[in-house]
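SEQUENCE-TO-STRUCTURE ENTRY
===========================
What this section holds: a protein sequence and its matching fold, both as plain text.
Question of interest: how does this chain fold, as expressed in backbone structure tokens?
***
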Amino acid sequence: MSELAPPLEQVIHELTKLPSIGKKTAQRLAFHLLQAPREEAQALARAIVQLRERIRFCRDCFNLSDRELCPVCSDPKRERSLICVVEGPGNLLAIERTRAFKGVYHVLGGALSPLKDKGPDDLRLRELMDRLRGGSFTEVVLAMNPDVEGEATAVYLSRLLKPLGLKVTRLAQGLPAGGDLDYTDDLTLRRAFEGRRDF
């Protein structure tokens, strides 16, 4: 039998479902919410509900947005002949922080991973191919995470894109193998982006 009240136990249980949140951290967060002013806890609850209700995928690139088009796709100053393919929205944000890329993006929604039962049909590859065939793109930058899944995805994409006659580049080496773009420092990511090479 738990020595905690069921509502508190339920909040702790739900918080442990979040990435990198263990039971002790979940308990600290739950106790913090109990001690915070009621308005703060209610504001957090409303923000979570609005997140789920209002956030959707951008019509063009599949980035997260609260409108039909994300801020990148709706920006008329972006270079429309250059497209950067990333695994997820976190990768897009990491690249945007560098201010080194002025084109548009395509978010795949993951990487190829046979161990996680994620194959080509689980990624937004058809949408990417449709965009490339229907657009005026001249270069595709492959910005996958520098891990086994990212490498496999980049190789698969390069073979898929070759018949289109587009220039296919990828980020320069220097990013740590097995790393994640979301946690790469801005300078390293900027240099990797500026030093991209033909695939």
Q: What stands out?
A: The chain has two domains: 6-54, 64-198.
